[in-house]
Amino acid sequence: MTPERVLFRVDTGPQVGLGHLQRCLAVAHALAERGIDSSFAVPDASSVADRVGGFDLVELPGSARPEDVAAAAAGSPVVVDSYAVDGAYLSRLHEEVAALAVIDDRAAFPVAGRLCVNGGANAPSLPYRSASGNTRFLLGTDYTMLGAGFWDAVPRPTADPVSNVLLTLGGSDPHGLGPRLLAALGRLAVAPTITLVVGPYFVRPAALAEAAAGYRQRVVLLEAPPSLAPAMAEADLAVSAAGQSVYELLRLGVPTVALTIAPNQTAGLAALAARGAVIAAGGADDAGIDELVANEVRRLAGDGMRRRTLAETGRALVDGQGARRVAAALAGLRAGSTSGTGRRSSRVSSPRPLP
Fold first, then answer.
1. Considering only CA atoms, which of 5, 7, 20, 18 is closest in space to residue 101?
2. What is the mean pLDDT of residues 289-293?
3. In 3-state terms, what secondary structure has residue 194?
4. Highest-confidence range of 14-18, 52-56, 320-324, 348-352, by mean pLDDT?
5. Domain ranges in the chain?
6. pTM for this structure?
7. Which of 34, 97, 254, 332 has its CA at 20 to 30 Å from residue 233's CA atom?
């Protein structure tokens, strides 16, 4: 029997950002297409209430016990997207709930659960194992979970010359890169407009507004938009942290210079760069990263052929249907025995048509 409801247990906050929540929301909207409701259990409900919208929202601390999560699920399947859990926690939760699915980026330990999803470009190369013996693994960019605004979007042709550079660093800016990158791009004057996304967890947004007022270019500040799809659709070139936003940009064919702002982004960015989908500029802690990024932007802005190649490669790699594919897999879960031992697993990393 298809489940009527799915509970997403998701971590959010200044140290975590919005990537976990955004991809779970994407799957929730895809489930809604199938008539399946969703609810969200998060550490701080007030900070994400507007973003979660019409879905039910409950507050559970990141340290919530498996039995607390099971109680909130009330017999529904549970999707866990959190770096705060380990293999032992998932094994206990697997025994407590009707069906467990895990969204995981690291393959740091054997995973218990009926489904494990990693939509990263490097996912098929990671050493995933099942702790419960019945895990189906959905790996690779066919399962990149993008929001509804990206599912059926029609990318526009690559623009020449570049007139709008989008700068997005995710939900927070722990390294203070926003002002530095804005200043470096401003000195180059590669485009008449720079659009900077100010995430909800940015510490000093007022300082960005003050800095933006001093540039020759037009600087547009987007404060915590519910979706980046409209801004990305208007961008001719982008600078992005190497998280969820990079895959959104690839879907829309926006030529992108990417940098890592957390260690867990390094392998994924390397895989995308190896496929020729993005330009990897380095990491947030690299000396002179602002100038490195700006120089890559300058070169890319002056090379229309390379921009077109990046756009075509990105669109071919990410088709935008990952959330729908994951929702189809969740809809196929059946309540029943979740116990199991051994190492059997089903790895699925090749393209799969939607049901």
1. 7
2. 96
3. strand
4. 320-324
5. 5-148+320-348, 152-317
6. 0.91
7. 34
Contact of 140 with 351, CB cutoff 8 Å: no
Tell me if 5-148+320-348 shares its fold with 152-317: yes
Q: Which residues of 295-313 are buried (b: 16+ CB within 10 A; e: fewer)?
A: ebbbebbeeeebbeebbeb
CATH number of 152-317: 3.40.50.2000
What does the chain come to in residues?
A: 355
Residue 13 is given by DSSP the state B
Largest Cα span, the chain: 64
Helix then strand then coil, % of the chain, to nearest 5: 35, 20, 45
Fold annotation for 5-148+320-348 = Rossmann fold (3.40.50)
